[in-house]
Amino acid sequence: MKQELRVAAYAVCTRDDQVLLARWVARDGTKRWTLPGGGMEHGEDPIDTVVREVEEETGYRAEITALLGIDSVRRSYPRRLGALADFQGLRIVYEGRVTGGELRPETGGSTDLAAWHPLAGVAELDRVPLVDIGIGLWRTRPPTGRAAQRGSTTT
What we know:
Blueprint: E1 2-15, E2 18-25, E3 31-34, E4 37-39, H1 46-58, E5 60-78, E6 84-101, E7 111-118, H2 129-140
Parallel strand pairs: 1-6
Antiparallel strand pairs: 1-2, 1-4, 2-3, 2-7, 5-6
């Protein structure tokens, strides 16, 4: 089984009881809301990653104000010729503050829309589990930075 590791950084940006989300487009065309962020490039600092990704996906410049925690997810999925991949995603979650820019959708990336959503209405959104994990870390700020245990998830 081929092992794959993906390290990514995401931001929980809030203002006026709202959270900034980006709409992720899966390969099959399914669209679900996620935290702005994404994969680190080789040699890139995680804070530089999340600042870059927030701007790419939302149009906003962001300042990172706190490390909220780290989430790890593991799953298997089929690869070519019947092989399986053993995937682990390590997701670094930060608190961010918008410092400038203008809200706009990403073009040519993995998201197609960015928007502010009322925190009270997030549960009603079609979203990836990372949204709940990030908001949970933001609300509880666990001393270990570890999200509550749960089953495997994607993006």
